[in-house]
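Researcher: Structure prediction, please.
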Amino acid sequence: MELQTLRDLYVAELKDLYGAERQLIKALPRMADNATNSDLKEALNMHLEQTKEHALRLESILQSLDVTLDGKRCAGMAGLIEEADELLQQQPSEGVLDAGLIAKAQRIEHYEMAGYGTVRSYALVLGEDDHAAILQQTLDDAVRTDKVLTLLAESSINADTSLGQAARDAAAD
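Model: Predicted structure follows.
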């Protein structure tokens, strides 16, 4: 696809986000299944359900633009998912795993926030106000999920992991 106009770029970015969401739908179950903290597991499963809704929203927007849905692979999301898979392969202790999963999930959320904020802005400039409203809903979802993950990290998981390590260190002395 040639990128000659802002509309061309808008469509390309929407397709990239759609590819990212489809990739994430496949990756989030692995992350949730490996989480040891029940609240984190629940948050990751909630993110999966939101991600499915995000993909449907993008399908709707792309269909309204008469754009075919193809299996475009999002290189950025692929890299973020690869990092999460690398964490799982390292087989860290439970607390470290959960803290790491939060870090990986938050990187994914921030990537989504950047992408959805950008396409929402394009939609507004292009007069696609209905699209902008839908994209804002998804952006709001990403911000809320990021806050949930931050709360989990700061209220329990990071501190519990640190305390567990301190106890192991004390026992070793």
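Model: The helical segments are 6-34, 38-64, 75-89, 94-125, 129-172.
Researcher: Thanks, that helps.
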